[in-house]
Amino acid sequence: MSAAEIGQAIPASAAPRAGLREQGRQARPAVSWWGDVWRRFRRQRLSLAAAVLLLVLGFLALTAPAIAPYDPTEQFRRDGLTMLGEPLGPNPRFLLGTDGLGRDLLSRLLWGGRISLAIGVSATAIVMATALIVGGAAGFAGSKTDFLLMRLVDLMISVPQLFVMLLLVVVLQPGAWVVVLVVSLFGWPYPARVFRSQILTLKEADFVLAARSLGVPERRIFLRHVLPHLLPLVTVYAALSMPGVIFAEASLSFLGLGVPPPTPSWGSMIQDGLEYYRAAPWLVLYPGLAITLTVVSFNLVASGLREATDPAQRGG
C-alpha cells in the first residue's frame, strides 16, 4: 500500500482530534504545589468535613463574647438551680442547662472553647517554632552543632515529663500562660528529630548544591530554598500535635492545675461536673463531646494532609 493510499485510509476526523488532544495537553494550566495539595485534600470527604467543623469551632470560639447568652462567670442562684440546689437541665432560657453554681453551660462551653483552643494554638505554634529552629540548626549546620543539639533532644526526651509538668505548674501557680509554657516545653523534641532528618536530605539536593556553587549565603539557602520544602511537613506535624496539646490542657485543668476558676475551660468544666455526674450528666457530656470532636477533627485533618502531601500521590 502506498503512502497516498495510507493517507486516504485514515479517517478525516482523526487528525483534528489528535490535534485537539495535543492542544489540550499544551493548554493545561500549571498547578502550584499547594494547589495540587488542596485538590487532593478536598477529595477526602471525611477530612474536608473535619476541617469545616474545625473552622466552625474556631469561629464560635472567636465570637464567644458576642454570641454567648450570658457572662460565663455569672451565677443565677434563683433561676439557675432547682429547689434542691441542683443544676437545671436544658430549658428555653438555658439551652444546655446550668452547672452546680447556676452558671449557663452554653456560655461556659463557648468561652471554654475559646480558652482551650487558644492554649492549643499558642502551645502548638511555640512547639513547631522551637522544633524548627533546633532541628533546622542541627540538620543544616551539622558537625558539633548537630551533636550538641541532638544530645539536648535526648536529654529532654529522657525527662519524666508528667512529673516535671506537674511540678512546674505547682511552683509557677496555675494559669493559662503556665499551661502553654509547660506543654510547649516538652512538645518539641520529637518533631525536631523529624525536621532534622528531612533537612539532612534536603541539603544534599541538587538545587541546594547549585545555590552553594553560585555563592549564595547559607542563611539565604536555608530560608529561601530549604525552609519552603519543609513547610508541608511542619503543617502536618502541627495538625498532629494539636490534639495532644488540647488533651494536656484538659488533663491539667481536670486535676485543678490548669486555668484557675472561675475562668472556664473544657477540662475544668468536666472536673466541676463530676460532683453531679449522676443527677446532671450533661455537665460532663457536653465539654467531653467538645473535646472529642475537636481532637478527632484534628486527627482527620492531619491524616488528610499526610495523604495530600505524599509525593507518591502527586498527580493522582
Provide a compact summary of the structure.
The protein is 70% helix and 0% strand. The chain contains 14 helices and no strands.
Key terms for this structure?
single chain, 316 residues, 70% helix
Structure report:
It contains 14 helices and no strands. Helix 6 packs antiparallel against helix 12 and helix 8 packs antiparallel against helix 9. The longest helix has 37 residues, at 105-141. The chain is 70% helix and 0% strand. The radius of gyration is 27 Å and the shape is elongated. It is mainly α. The mean pLDDT is 81.
Q: Write the element-wise H/E pattern from the N-terminal end onward.
A: HHHHHHHHHHHHHH
Q: How many H/I helical runs?
A: 14
Low-pLDDT stretches are none
Q: Give the overall shape.
A: elongated
Mean pLDDT: 81
Q: What radius of gyration results from the CA coordinates?
A: 27 Å
Care to count the β-strands?
0
- Estimate percent helicity: 55-70%
Strand composition percent:
under 5%
Structural class: mainly alpha
The main pleated sheet reads as: none
For the termini, the CA-CA separation is 43 Å
Topology at a glance:
Blueprint: H1 3-9, H2 14-27, H3 33-41, H4 45-62, H5 64-67, H6 105-141, H7 143-158, H8 161-172, H9 176-185, H10 189-202, H11 206-213, H12 218-254, H13 266-273, H14 282-308
